[in-house]
Automatic annotation (TrEMBL):
Signal sequence range: 1-23
Region (Disordered): 25-64
The protein's name in its UniProt record: Secreted protein
UniProt key word Signal: yes
Ranges of biased composition (kind: Gly residues): 39-64
Entry keyword annotation includes Signal: yes
Source organism: Sorangium cellulosum
Length: 226
């Protein structure tokens, strides 16, 4: 089972969602993600509250979101629901799970930039395209992610998600980070941790967590900010 995590259209061309990645590109219709993880954009105007899935209100520019939900996640949820409504993404897409994964990968330090980008792009949701007028917000989000986050995640699970064999790769902090895990002779799950193709360490991890680039055991070698 191969999973491609794409930030579909919201991070416009920055892969970050699980399963079935949809197209990107400035001139082609794009999707906010794929069937597993997506990224959306936030409410279009608004100075702080969170907008509903139907409209333009609020998670603007890093403003607060619903209680307990970071502004980046809420902004992503707003545009994800719009993309589903207008057919940019599959109607059964899990917006909540996709957005939480997206924001976790891009990093907490980029939450404001992600919220601002999604908020700017929300009015263009019906066209499934990234508005040209949001280039500054888009560039700011990408610059932040390049400095402290991850993008372009792709994972392979030979025995489906329930197994303990997996391989994931993503660009983090400007370098390619890879995790390759599988069962060892003593029954544990061992992982090889690589940066730009060079093994920087090995570790033993818990099943279902080993391939997580930030929370898995390899991050003791990667040092990717959480």
């Amino acid at each position: 089972m191969k999973s491609s995590i794409r930030i579909g259209w919201l991070l416009s061309m920055m892969a970050l969602s699980t399963l079935v990645a949809c197209g990107d590109g400035d001139d082609e219709p794009t999707s906010s993600g794929s069937t597993g993880t997506i990224m959306g954009d936030g409410g279009s105007g608004g100075g702080g509250g969170s907008g509903g899935s139907g409209g333009g209100g609020g998670g603007g520019g890093g403003g607060g979101g619903e209680a307990g939900i970071p502004s980046g996640v809420q902004a992503c949820l707003d545009i994800c629901e719009q993309h589903k409504m207008y057919g940019c993404d599959p109607p059964d897409l899990d917006c909540d799970g996709s957005c939480r994964l997206t924001i976790a990968l891009t990093g907490s330090e980029c939450d404001d930039e992600m919220a601002a980008m999604y908020s700017c792009e929300l009015p263009g949701a019906p066209s499934c395209r990234r508005p040209d007028e949001c280039s500054d917000e888009h560039d700011a989000a990408f610059a932040c992610i390049a400095a402290s986050g991850c993008w372009g995640l792709e994972c392979t699970y030979p025995n489906d998600l329930e197994g303990n064999e997996c391989a994931c790769a993503s660009t983090c902090l400007g370098k390619k980070h890879e995790v390759e895990c599988g069962p060892s002779a003593d029954g544990t799950t061992r992982c090889a941790c690589l940066v730009d193709g060079v093994q920087v360490g090995t570790c033993e991890g818990a099943v279902k967590e080993v391939c997580h680039l930030k929370q898995g055991c390899c991050n003791e070698f990667f040092n990717i900010p959480l």
